[in-house]
Design brief:
alpha/beta; Rossmann fold; 7-stranded parallel beta sheet; 10 helices
Length: 252
């Protein structure tokens, strides 16, 4: 298959790209960090197309390069993501950037890819979101909001196009050993409460889910129970989250 993975210079994106290559697929990787993108491509045997895939021009350049290289795209993995700020003091500029990277990058890619896939009758869009997109993330309003939006857009894509051969999947892990986790500070204990995964563990979950086309890919099994508890009793869930917030404010 012909694969494009964004945010693949390191972390989860790199691991997913490497897993596809191990299967024998052709892979283009993208990252805003051009040096990391090129180094990773050389190391794993992918094709590097560095740039900002959150912008309309950037995503079009990425997709054009992949199409020129492969003749088409079978799978798009929207992995690039940022935290993008904290609470109410987050600036409008930070909100806009988080929305661009975590949500609009997916919209812009799908806008270009879906017509091609509808014509062929098949295609796969994989959104690497976060458990925060199903639950929430204490401390970071932009991350929580945009990851919810990323999952919601993936749901919309699936509901709209699954009968026409387009498979949409949303990957929602909790704590994964990535640069974002390493910079999480006092939130680290919450993130690894149910086990800290390696990026390769998340990639293995994605590869396994290619066989059954399940929408939600949950590398941490416990997330399904949390998601159900949140939906069943939202006030109890919010009380628990507020308890964590108070614990953090008290110094942990």
């Amino acid at each position: 298959m012909r694969i494009v993975v964004t945010g693949a210079g390191r972390g989860i994106g790199r691991a997913i790209a490497a897993a596809f290559i191990d299967r024998g697929d052709q892979v283009v990787i993208n990252d805003v960090d051009a040096e990391a993108c090129r180094a990773t491509a050389e190391e794993i045997g992918a094709i590097a197309v560095p740039g900002d895939a959150a912008t309309e021009a950037g995503v079009e350049a990425l997709l054009a390069a992949a199409r020129a290289e492969f003749g088409g795209i079978d799978v798009f993995v929207a992995n690039a993501g940022i935290e993008g700020g904290a609470g109410l003091n987050t600036s409008d500029e930070q909100w806009a950037r988080a929305l661009d990277v975590n949500v609009m990058a997916h919209v812009r890619a799908a806008r270009s890819l879906v017509p091609e896939w509808l014509e062929r009758g098949e295609g796969r869009f994989i959104t690497v979101a976060s458990a925060a997109g199903l639950l929430m993330m204490i401390g970071s309003a932009p991350y929580s909001v945009t990851k919810h939006a990323a999952v919601a857009f993936a749901e919309w894509l699936s509901a709209t196009y699954r009968h026409q051969g387009i498979v949409v999947q949303a990957v929602c892990p909790q704590g994964v050993r990535t640069p974002m986790y390493e910079g999480a500070g006092p939130l680290k204990p919450m993130l690894h409460h149910d086990g800290l995964l390696e990026p390769e563990d998340v990639a293995a979950s994605v590869m396994a889910a290619l066989d059954d086309d399940r929408f939600l890919i949950l590398p941490h099994d416990t997330v399904a129970g949390y998601y159900q508890a949140r939906a069943t009793n939202p006030d109890a869930w919010l009380d628990q989250m507020n308890g964590i917030q108070r614990w953090l404010e008290s110094g942990g």
